[in-house]
Amino acid sequence: MRFIYNFIFAIVFLISFIGESYSNAQTHDLLRIKKYHENFCKNITATNLKDNINNSWKILKKTRNLYIFVNNEKQTKLEIKLFIRSNNIQRSIFIFYDLENNPLIEIRSNKNCQILIAKRITYNKELIPIEIQTIDLSKLTINDVKLLNPKTPTLDNDKNKNVIALVDTGINYTLENLQKHIATRNREILGFDFWDNDNKPFDSDPRQNPFYPRHHGTTVFSVLAKESPNSLIAPYRFPANDMCRFRELINHIAKNSIRLVSLSMGSDNLSDWICFKEAAEKHNNIIFVVSAGNNGFNLDEKPIYPASLKLNNIISVTSSDQTGRLGRGSNYGINSIDFMVPAERVEVIDHRGVRAYTGGTSYAVPKLVALISRYINKHNNASKSEIINFLKNRAIQKGKKITKYGWIPDPLDNYLID
User: Fold this and answer.
1) Are 363 and 343 contacting, i.e. CB atoms less than 8 angstroms apart?
2) Which residues, 6 or more positions from 71, have their beta carbon under 8 angstroms from its beta carbon?
3) Which of 29-33, 58-62, 124-128, 253-257 is the most confident on average?
4) Distant-in-sequence, close-in-space partners of 321: CB < 8 Å, separation ≥ 6
5) What pLDDT, on the 0 to 100 scale, is given for residue 399?
6) How far apart are CA 128 and CA 122, in angstroms?
7) pTM of the predicted protein model
8) 162-407 is classed in which CATH architecture?
9) Which of 179, 142, 139 lies closest to 157, judged by CA?
10) Biggest alpha carbon–alpha carbon distance for the chain
11) Where in the chain are the domains?
């Protein structure tokens, strides 16, 4: 019953506004939020919370920079973050949640409590975020809408091409110039969103801030598409909320007979990757190319996973500049990292569809994956050991040894492929 009540409240409290006219109930809800902001903002100082702000709110936590309140009557939680300098509040962030901790509205204001920007997240009936709206609370209008779970396009790409699995934060599949590179089955995207548990692996990583999600997978996808033009790419959004669902993800890849995976992610918590390790061991015929990470670590001494997993079907790669010097902040290790490729200034297409430049070990991965994919396209029956030997033969040693097999200075060159 609590779930049903919370869901109904979320829909009523923050339902999407359409057009420029609003019902009295909808207007009242936003006016109420605006009023809450005004009352709290004006009554919280850098040193104290004034009494009697609102009797229906109960304070759960209070520190110098953070207040958390709950309003059981309205089934709402409020988190207030303060940014203080010399005992004066410089700005504040108000975040309203439902009691299941689903973020609803974020309001950013200056030291005078003037609202700088307000954003709202709307949800579907499964409580999957569907869009982020930028709201003008003074006029009760929507200034901008960013989709988080848009409808997937109907595609029918060449099914005879070699397929690469991209495991990342999803991709922006609404970008028409990328659609021809997406692997399909039955005219639908081949891949899955193991984060939201649906068939729409749209590029969004809300972990740092759900109102300002990060985007990563689209840029990696664009490198794969550019450097392996005769392959197709199946996008998977990784299961950030339940890393053991990597078992299902890898089983899905195996079921679709995909043998090459691009995986530009990692962490220092081995427990996050146990289920991945077990599934990767089970499907030993699948090659996983993984990033070394960008912490400046020697992974022989301070491991990052999955790059540090001792599996014969994992190929780890780090980034260099064009001269073969280790990229700034790129991890290394003569026992933990297999190869290094130039990936410090890589042209990409970002989530907006705009050309940009970026770099790091996340982009060393698709460059090496593309090289392997081009090799597989010419040698369809190549074994895993033959593929690894091909890479070894392409690598050279330059300067101090910092990887197991060396530097591949020209991953776009088809030397030893043709």
Assistant:
1) yes
2) 54, 56, 57, 58, 77, 78
3) 253-257
4) 327, 342, 344, 345
5) 86
6) 8
7) 0.91
8) 3-Layer(aba) Sandwich (3.40)
9) 179
10) 77
11) 2-147, 162-407
